[in-house]
Design a protein that fits this description.
Layout: E1 5-8, H1 17-27, E2 31-35, H2 52-65, E3 68-76, H3 87-95, E4 100-104, H4 110-124, E5 130-133, H5 144-154, E6 159-161, E7 163-164, H6 165-170, H7 175-179, E8 189-190, H8 202-211, H9 223-227, E9 235-237, H10 242-248, H11 250-265, H12 270-278
Parallel strand pairs: 1-2, 1-9, 2-3, 3-4, 4-5, 5-6, 7-8, 8-9
Helix pairs in contact: 1-2, 1-11, 4-5, 10-11, 11-12
Length: 279
C-alpha cells in the first residue's frame, strides 16, 4: 500500500472546502483537511457547521470524487474557550466522516487546560473522532515533552499527538523522546520542510509557519530523522508558501506539493523533480 496524503487547508486557505475537494481529486490526494474556525482575525473562514449550503455541496463532492476528510481544525482551548463551544464543530466533523480533530492548548493554566482537553475528548468519542494535540513552539504547549505530559495526565483513549515537522524542529524536541511516544497516539502528521535557521522571535516563527514553508526535502529540517522515529501514518501536507503560491496558483501548487512528498518519501531527489516540473 502506498503513502496516503491529505491536502491541508492552510496550504490553500484561499480555497473553499468544495474547491479544495475538486483540486485534491484532480491532483491525487486521498484526503482533505478542513479548517472550519478562524485562527487570525483577517483570514477567510469556512464554518461548515453553520453554512448548510456549503456543507451539502462539500458532502456531495466528497461522495462524487471519493476524496475523504482526514481531519478538521481547529479547536483552540484558550482561557476563554470551553469545550462545549465546539459541539457544533465536532458534529460537523462527524457529518463529514472526518477522523481527527486538531487541538491546541494556548492556556497558561495547566490544570484547566487538561480538564478541558479531557472533556473535549469525551465529547468527541461518541462521534468517532480523535482529539489530536498540536504543539506550536510559541504557545503554552511549546514542545513534545509538555504535550506528552498532558496526554498522559488526561488518559483518554481517543487522544492523539499531532507531529508537525516544522513545530517539532522549531521546538527543539528530541528524537529519543519521539521514539518513546506510544505508537497508538500517532494518527496522522503534518509533513513540510523549512529553512534550517530557527527564527529568534515569535513573529518570525509564525511567519514561517503560515507563509514560508517548503516542500519536503527542499529545506533544512532533518525530516528523515523525524520520520524514522514514527510509524507510517497519513501525511497531511501543510505547506503554505505565499511567494510560490502566487506564482503557481492553488492547483499547480497542490500538485507539486504531493509529487515532491511522494518523491521524498520514496527516497528520490526533490531538486531533480522541481527541475523537471519547471522544464
Amino acid at each position: 500500500m502506498g503513502h496516503q496524503f491529505s491536502l491541508a487547508h492552510l496550504t490553500v486557505l484561499q480555497l473553499t472546502p468544495p474547491e479544495m475537494v475538486r483540486i485534491a481529486a484532480r491532483t491525487g490526494y486521498d484526503f482533505v483537511s478542513l479548517r472550519m474556525t478562524a485562527i487570525t482575525p483577517s483570514e477567510r473562514t469556512y464554518p461548515l457547521m453553520h453554512d448548510k449550503k456549503m456543507m451539502q455541496e462539500t458532502k456531495a463532492l466528497l461522495a462524487d470524487t471519493g476524496v475523504k476528510v482526514l481531519d478538521i481544525e481547529l479547536a483552540r482551548l484558550g482561557p476563554e474557550n470551553e469545550p462545549e463551544d465546539y459541539q457544533a464543530f465536532l458534529e460537523a466533523g462527524a457529518e463529514l466522516n472526518a477522523r481527527h480533530v486538531i487541538t491546541q492548548l494556548p492556556d497558561p493554566d495547566r490544570l484547566r487546560a487538561e480538564e478541558r482537553l479531557a472533556r473535549l475528548c469525551d465529547m468527541a468519542k461518541p462521534l468517532g473522532l480523535t482529539i489530536d494535540l498540536e504543539f506550536p513552539s510559541w504557545t503554552e504547549t511549546p514542545n513534545l515533552d509538555e504535550a506528552t505530559r498532558i496526554l498522559k495526565n488526561i488518559d483518554r483513549d481517543n487522544a492523539g499527538l499531532l507531529i508537525d515537522t516544522l513545530h517539532f524542529d522549531r521546538s527543539r524536541s528530541g528524537l529519543e523522546d519521539l521514539k518513546a511516544v506510544p505508537r497508538e497516539w500517532f494518527n496522522f502528521m503534518h509533513l513540510c520542510d523549512a529553512g534550517k535557521e530557527i527564527p529568534d522571535s515569535i513573529e518570525g516563527l509564525i511567519h514561517t509557519a503560515r507563509s514560508e514553508r517548503f516542500f519536503p526535502g527542499e529545506g533544512g529540517i532533518d525530516l528523515r530523522a523525524i520520520l524514522d522515529c514514527m510509524p507510517t501514518v497519513p501525511y497531511s501536507l501543510e505547506i503554505p508558501n505565499d511567494l510560490l503560491m502566487a506564482k503557481l496558483g492553488p492547483e499547480e501548487y497542490s500538485r507539486r506539493a504531493i509529487r515532491a512528498a511522494e518523491h521524498y518519501l520514496n527516497g528520490a531527489d526533490t531538486g531533480l523533480l522541481n527541475q523537471s516540473m519547471s522544464a
